Backbone:
């Protein structure tokens, strides 16, 4: 592996989209034991999945994993902690007493 080389691999995946009162999410599960490392990119192929209200759709698709080069992986590990706070969700609630 050279410092700048990237490689791509195709893997099967399962896409689950939910649009319900209880939950609104889209999950992708990679099959065949594929592992995503820091800096890797995943592209799921196919048309967009549009779930109507109250519907959960599960489809099998193909995903392309583009592996990060050694240099990209190092950069993500060095700078990833600085962007961690963007992922945090803060919640404040007001307590009302009568």
Residues:
């Amino acid at each position: 592996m050279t410092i700048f080389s990237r490689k791509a691999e195709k893997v099967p995946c399962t896409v689950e989209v939910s649009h319900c009162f209880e939950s609104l999410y889209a999950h992708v599960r990679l099959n065949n034991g594929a592992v995503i490392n820091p800096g890797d990119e995943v592209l799921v192929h196919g048309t967009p999945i549009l779930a109507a209200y109250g519907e959960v759709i599960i489809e099998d698709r193909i995903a392309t994993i583009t592996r990060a080069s050694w240099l990209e992986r190092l950069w993500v590990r060095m700078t990833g902690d600085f962007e961690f706070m963007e992922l945090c969700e803060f919640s404040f609630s007001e307590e009302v007493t009568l």
